[in-house]
Amino acid sequence: MRVVTWNLQGRVGEWERRHDAIETVLVDADADVIMLQESWVQPDGATQAHRLGERLALHATTAAALAGFDRYPQASYWVVNAILTRWPSTILRAVPLVDEIGSPTWRHVLVVHVERPDAEGGAFIAAGTHLEHGLDRSPTRSAQMEHMIREVSSAIGAADSWRDRLPAVVAGDLNAVPWSDEIRRATGAAPTYVPGFGLVDAWDACGNTDRGDTWSSRNPLVPRRAISPNRRLDYITTTFPRRRSLGSFTSCGLIAVDPVDGVQPSDHYAVLAEVEL
Question: What sign for the dihedral angle of Cα 90, 173, 235, 49?
Answer without folding.
Answer: positive
